[in-house]
């Protein structure tokens, strides 16, 4: 939950930089006029518009986040508040030393991030550059590449699971690996399944990256291209020395988005194989421990807190950098 | 609400973002209001002619079968059973909060530890008065299953089904196989099948629970019912040599299991039996659901898991049982008791089985004349059992089985050599979970 919401914020905050400067100057002058124009009703309306989201935000984000941090130091089966027992750091000790799934999960989250940065991100950038050239049917290609992003992760997981099914799936049927003795178990084999899922995740992430970069490229001043063309730079030089540096704000967004994707990845894997050996992820461990009949809410919260800490380590430097930039501007 | 957005729009040149935010906020509000109102409004005054019932029977066949029972009950007594059906997985996952909130008077649930857990937490009402009427309908083993740890009754069983090894009669006949009753015969049969180009034992453990069933069978055959129960209750140790022995036996037949099991669903594994590519399959009778062709279904048969230790023979049967419980403070207790008394009769079971023939009566007094041969055999197997188990995830703590045992057994299937470190890891995690009360 928390990761979902933090996901929205940096994006909302991060997207504007390319065109932000003029937009920010505009409203800044207008407000003085505004104040006089605001009637009582407007003020009540505004109060509502600011107040209700604030209350919802505090109740749904802060209170729940703090509560789950507190619960991480307890054991609780979710039945009646009097069964909450304080256990100090025991959940964490148990997690770090005894849980055979925890360290693999951390590792897989990291692999997830690295793969998303190394494969779909450059690929998305490449596609965006090609589509930015005003080729014919550009819209059609854009739609095609962006389609996976529109699909829900659960649907993607389901579709790819059909492709990878060891007995009846597309791949094994084509290469004849669905016979006894020749099995390739894409879903169950811990040496394969993470990579199999990452193909699906990359398939989707490429489209996402493409749209982000395409938006960035549209914001690049055409006169820069002209200038570098006049200076005799070829296409690659123009891209490397002129276009790519101007995409810096987009790169930051891409980085943050990708980190968040890597930390929140859940639905795809859950549909694919429920996080069996080889595909354990922190988010799945949280779910497996908290959801269910006699839930281990304290223990699950401890995993969630670890996830939160990792997110903070990543997000705080980014926020610091953004705020510093804003203050300078 | 309605005046919010217009005034939001009328602000001079709102930036696109603030507008979007406004719309987003409105959407959140719109979504929030029905949620909030849903929290408070449902406590309608109880109608003396209505009993509410929470049901997890969301699949079409069981849903209709249950509905038929309630319709018959209404006809008989004039009491309406107001059914609130939820998706079965959701029902199971939300059972904690459901029972703590404002649950229905009666709800569908499982026998075994999963029932005793909620009984011990005070989330169910003891129904000894119901059992005064219905006790005669059930065999001793069922009565034991219906009791909580405090010795009071909490559960009314409706139907049950056994786990066993399924096979195709035609395949056994054609190849001249004999049904094995001893472990060594079983292993020899597996070898022979492999030689004949069959997959000896179909297996799919993608959902992670089927392997629990294999362990159950080997463990209570090798170590007996009492040890199995102690192990499930967290009392016996997983590092005990007895458990190790069970895993060794499992490792002995593991090479004869279908490859790539962790990536295969039980439905797909059942298809290999249906298409005669596999010789045997250990599962519950619900495997029959995958035999859509009538001729194939008639060809399906099963035998009890072979004897390992002669001291225990084949005396234990794994027979998960489903039925009903009463929530902690039912609004209409008098009628809920009467409903449960009715649900504990062979009549109610007959109505259910008419629509869902993949299970058998929990009662010994029921009419078995319309049974298919498989049902008949299943019924006899359960009736002749000395002890009944429920299934690992019903006999032990669900948090232990789902977060520890399921991944551990998947790991064992893939790498049976690592069993020692696996068992000590299970034991360490078990201690923490069972200590947490």
UniProtKB/TrEMBL annotation, chain A:
Basic and acidic residues: bias regions: 1-10
PROSITE patterns named among the record's database cross-references: ABC_TM1 (PS50928)
Any one GO biological process: transmembrane transport
Positions of transmembrane segments: 44-73, 110-131, 143-163, 194-215, 297-320
Pfam families in the cross-refs: BPD_transp_1 (PF00528)
Ranges where the ABC transmembrane type-1 domain occurs: 106-320
Entry keyword set: Cell membrane, Membrane, Transmembrane, Transmembrane helix, Transport
Signal peptide residues on this chain, from the entry's feature table: none
Region span, Disordered: 1-34
Family: Belongs to the binding-protein-dependent transport system permease family.
Protein name as catalogued: ABC transporter permease
UniProtKB/TrEMBL annotation, chain B:
Source superkingdom: Bacteria
Native organism taxonomy: Bacteria, Bacillati, Actinomycetota, Actinomycetes, Kitasatosporales
Protein name per its UniProtKB record: Sugar ABC transporter substrate-binding protein
Listed Pfam families: SBP_bac_1
SUPFAM superfamilies in UniProt: Periplasmic binding protein-like II
Organism in which the protein naturally occurs: Streptomyces caeruleatus
């Amino acid at each position: 939950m928390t990761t979902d919401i933090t996901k929205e914020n940096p994006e909302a905050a991060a997207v504007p930089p390319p065109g932000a400067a003029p937009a920010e100057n505009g409203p800044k002058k207008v407000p003085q006029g505004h104040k006089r124009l605001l009637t009582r009703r407007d003020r009540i309306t505004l109060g509502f518009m600011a107040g209700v989201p604030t209350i919802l935000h505090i109740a749904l984000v802060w209170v729940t986040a703090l509560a789950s941090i507190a619960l991480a130091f307890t054991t609780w089966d979710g039945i009646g508040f009097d069964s909450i027992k304080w256990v100090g750091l025991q959940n964490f000790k148990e997690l770090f030393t005894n849980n055979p799934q925890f360290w693999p999960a951390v590792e897989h989250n990291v692999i997830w991030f690295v793969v998303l940065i190394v494969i779909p991100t450059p690929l998305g950038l490449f596609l965006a550059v090609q589509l930015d050239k005003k080729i014919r049917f550009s819209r059609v290609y854009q739609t095609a590449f962006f389609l996976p992003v529109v699909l829900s992760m659960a649907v993607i997981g389901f579709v790819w699971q059909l492709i990878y099914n060891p007995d009846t799936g597309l791949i094994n049927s084509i290469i004849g690996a669905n016979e006894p003795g020749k099995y390739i178990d894409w879903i169950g084999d811990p040496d394969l399944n993470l990579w199999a899922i990452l193909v699906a995740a990359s398939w989707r992430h490429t489209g996402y990256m493409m749209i982000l970069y395409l938006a960035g490229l549209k914001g690049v001043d055409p006169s820069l291209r002209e200038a570098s063309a006049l200076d005799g730079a070829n296409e690659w030089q123009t891209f490397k020395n002129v276009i790519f540096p101007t995409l810096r704000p987009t790169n930051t967004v891409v980085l943050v988005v990708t980190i968040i994707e890597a930390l929140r990845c859940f639905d795809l894997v859950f549909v694919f194989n429920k996080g069996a050996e080889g595909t354990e992820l922190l988010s799945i461990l949280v779910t497996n421990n908290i959801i269910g009949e006699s839930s281990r809410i304290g223990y699950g919260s401890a995993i969630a807190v670890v996830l939160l800490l990792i997110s903070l380590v990543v997000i705080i430097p980014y926020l610091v950098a953004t705020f510093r930039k804003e203050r300078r501007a | 609400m309605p005046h919010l957005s217009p005034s939001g729009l009328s602000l001079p040149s709102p930036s696109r973002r603030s507008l979007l935010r406004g719309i987003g906020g409105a959407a959140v509000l719109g979504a929030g209001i029905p949620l909030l109102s849903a929290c408070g409004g449902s406590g309608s005054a109880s109608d003396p002619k209505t009993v509410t019932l929470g049901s997890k029977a969301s699949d079409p066949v069981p849903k209709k079968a249950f509905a038929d029972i309630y319709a018959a009950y209404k006809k008989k007594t004039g009491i309406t059973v107001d059914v609130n059906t939820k998706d079965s997985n959701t029902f199971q996952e939300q059972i904690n909060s459901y029972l703590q909130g404002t649950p229905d008077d009666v709800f569908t649930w499982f026998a075994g530890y999963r029932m005793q857990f909620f009984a011990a937490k005070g989330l169910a009402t003891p129904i000894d008065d119901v059992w005064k009427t219905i006790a005669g309908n059930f065999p001793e083993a069922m009565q034991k299953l219906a009791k909580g740890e405090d010795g009071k009754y909490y559960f009314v069983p409706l139907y049950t089904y056994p786990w066993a090894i399924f096979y195709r009669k035609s395949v056994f006949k054609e190849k001249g196989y004999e049904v094995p009753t001893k472990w060594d015969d079983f292993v020899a049969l597996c070898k022979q099948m492999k030689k004949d180009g069959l997959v000896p034992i179909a297996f799919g453990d993608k959902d992670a629970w089927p392997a629990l069933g294999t362990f159950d069978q080997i463990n209570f055959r090798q170590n007996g019912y009492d040890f199995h129960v102690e192990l499930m209750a967290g009392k016996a140790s997983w590092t005990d040599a007895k458990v190790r022995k069970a895993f060794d036996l499992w490792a002995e037949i593991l090479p004869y299991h279908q490859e790539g099991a962790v990536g295969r669903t039980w439905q797909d594994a059942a298809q290999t039996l249906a298409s005669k590519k596999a010789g045997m399959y250990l599962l519950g009778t619900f495997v029959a659901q995958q035999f859509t062709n009538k001729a194939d279904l008639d060809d399906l048969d099963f035998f009890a898991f072979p004897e390992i230790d002669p001291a225990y023979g084949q005396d234990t049967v794994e027979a998960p049982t489903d039925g009903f419980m009463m929530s902690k403070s039912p609004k209409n207790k008098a009628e809920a008791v009467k409903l449960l008394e009715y649900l504990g009769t062979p009549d109610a079971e007959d109505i259910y089985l008419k629509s869902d023939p993949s299970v058998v009566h929990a009662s010994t007094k029921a009419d078995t004349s319309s049974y298919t041969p498989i049902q008949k055999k299943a019924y006899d197997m359960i009736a002749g059992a000395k002890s009944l188990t429920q299934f690992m995830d019903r006999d032990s703590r669900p948090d232990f089985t789902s977060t520890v045992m399921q991944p551990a057994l998947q790991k064992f299937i893939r790498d049976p050599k690592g069993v020692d470190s696996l068992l000590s890891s299970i034991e360490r995690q078990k201690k923490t979970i069972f200590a947490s009360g």
